Amino acid sequence: MAAVRHAEASWTGSLAEGSGMINYVTSGSITRLPVSWASRTEAANGRTSPEELVAAAHASCYAMAFSGDLTRNGTPPTSLTVGATVTFDKVEAGWKVVSSALTVRGVVPGIDAATFTSLAEVARDGCPISGMMKGNVALSVEATLEG
Question: What domains sit in the chain, N to C, each tagged with a CATH number?
Answer without folding.
Answer: 7-41 (no CATH), 50-146 (3.30.300.20)
